[in-house]
Structure formats: structure tokens, C-alpha cells
Predict the structure of GerMN domain-containing protein.
Amino acid sequence: MNEQWSPEERALSSALHETADQVQPGPDGLARIRRRTASGVPWWRSPAVLGVAGGIATATAVVAIAVNVMGPGESETSVQPATTPEVTETDEGTATEPPPSEEPSPEQDDPTSEPTDAPGDHEDPSAEPTEAADETGQPPGDDSADADVTAMPVYFEVAERLTREWQSPPADRDVLFSAVDYSLNAEALDPRYDSLWAPVEVNSVQVVDDVIEVDLRSPVELAAGSSLADEAVQQLVYTATAAASVAREDVDGALPVQLLVDGTPPDTLFGELDATEPFTRAAQEDVRHLVQIDSPAYGEEVTAPVNVTGVAAVFEATVLWELRRDGEVVDSGHTMTEEAFTFSPYHFAFDDLEPGTYEISLMEDDPSGGEGREPYVETKRFTVVEP
């Protein structure tokens, strides 16, 4: 016991310890908690708690009387009542802890876990400005021996949806500028992918006061029909925001994008869209292809083992896959994303593929049994070579 305690403090401590020593935990405490909480009666209103509350109140009164009779010393302050111990006693005489609060989410459990929705391309999770960055899928060249090569995310259109490729910019050009220029003007690695923009000269791309300014030289025209004007804007916005998050650590991947034409914001874009204010990302599920293969890239030469990575937003987090060689299915199965219905990563590998050219196809599971829309399918052709 602390030798510096006053007589009143020692009396109060002794009384509380004596009361607590009478409480014995039972072996079925957790089961009792679950039965009690399942009944719908708040734990603090249960008969056992009300009974023990009365007992504690009585014990507290006894302690208070003892303290008041003894009285504080001349140089000592009065002792304040101690906090009621968080222990309750059941009517059988066993003790249980108060019912646990709702279990924390995985993000709360692991303080080092990545946020569900970081700026960029994985919705993440979580309104568009909080979606996760393009880093949810690793670029094909991420483990390249050439440390000077920087992979940049570039968006194109396929099946009237946006899809992403990781490409390498020229060493002497800015990543942000190059990504926008490639998206609007370059050919994709995958021949199925297209740009919705007619070729246009990019004057500059820069971040100014938390806005990405993209300056194009007139004329600025659509390569697709007017019905895809909004998607064309999203192609530019997704590319610029994703590339900014990759190229600059201090930039939020979901910054708004202000379009300039010859240095000035135009009144309209493509003759119909208001372009006087910055554009922001649309929800990923509304504009992105729901199944994305990041690696292997289309036409890539790889050695075994072959790692297949990407992101998808699919039913029950299930992605089906088929591996073909010379048009014949040589293997099939399924893999899981980290989350269902939101863009999150997946990964699986083929350990011992023989040299040759293959096609890997990934697709959504179809919970409608063919009654709904066509499932999204993504295919990449790659070649396995000898190490």
C-alpha cells in the first residue's frame, strides 16, 4: 500500500478491494453476454446489473460514512468517490465483464493498413475524391531491372468504358504531360483500346493551386459520337489525376482538372459540355471497365512463374478466368478480389507454363444466370519465353 496515502484514502481503497474480491468470474461469461445482448434488453437494465448496482451503492455509502466520520486532516483535501468498477454480477453469483462494444473494422484493427479509399483509382474505396490510387494495380515494369523507367497510368476506351494501361514515358519528358499526351494521341498496347479524342496537341499539363490544368491547342474534337462526350472527358480526367498521384507524392490523385484551350477555359467542350469550371472524376463503377488486367501487359514477354494482377469490382469478389493456348482452353478457375462490388486488387500465378503464346481472360461471375447484361470480360495475350 502506498505509504503516502492518507488514512481516508487507505480506508476507501480497502473497502473497494474487499468488494471487488467478492466478485468471481464465471466460465460462461461470454455466453451470458451474448444471450443477454441477443434478447434486446440493454445490459445496463438487466436485473443482475440493477441488483449489483444497489450493492455497490450500499458499499459506497459505507465507505463514504467511514471517510466522513474520520474526517480529512488539516492539510489534506477530501477524498472523491472512486469510479465504479466495470464489473457486473449475475444472479447466480458469477461475474461477467460488460458486453464488448461493436467489433472495430479491419482498418481500426490494423493501424498500418492502407486506407480503403486513397486518392486515385481503387474505390478504393471509398465519393470519388477519396478513391484509392492507381497503385492498386502494380505496373508491369515495376520489377524491371531498369530503375530509370517510370510506369505511368494511361486511360483508353473499350466497350464504351474506361480501361487503364501502364506505359513507360520517354526519359526526357514529364510523366504527367506524357500520360495525358499518350491518352489523347498515342496508340494503346492493346489493339482493342482506343482514344475518344481526335488527335490534339498538348501545350502543357501542370498542377496550379490544387487544380490540374491541361492546356490543349485548338481545334479540340471528338473522335467518337457525341453520346460519348462525357466519357471522353473522364478519359482525360482519370489519366491526369492518376498520373499526378504517381508522378508527385504531394498531389492528391483526385484533384479537379481544368481544361484550357489555347490558354483559356472554353465556354463549351465538343460544342455541348460546360467547360468553364474544372471537371472531377465520375464514380468508377459508372465509367470504368469492371475487370482490369494490369499484368501481364498485352504482348508482353515473360518467364515463368507468370503473375496475373489487376483490379476488379465484381459480385461476391469473384473473378473467373480461362487460360488459352492456340484457341484451346488449357486451364481455368477463379480468383478473389480483396473486396466485393468495389475496385480492389487480385493476384494469382501460373508456376510452370511451357514457352509459347497464351491468352488469359478474366470475367465477372454472372449471378443472373444469363438474364442480365453481358458480363465484363478482359483478355491479354502474352508470350512465355525461356529464362
Observations:
- The chain has seven helices and 18 strands.
- The first strand starts at residue 24 and ends at 25.
- Residues 25-120, 122-133, 141-149 have pLDDT under 50 and may be disordered.
- The chain has three domains: 7-96, 128-287, 291-384.
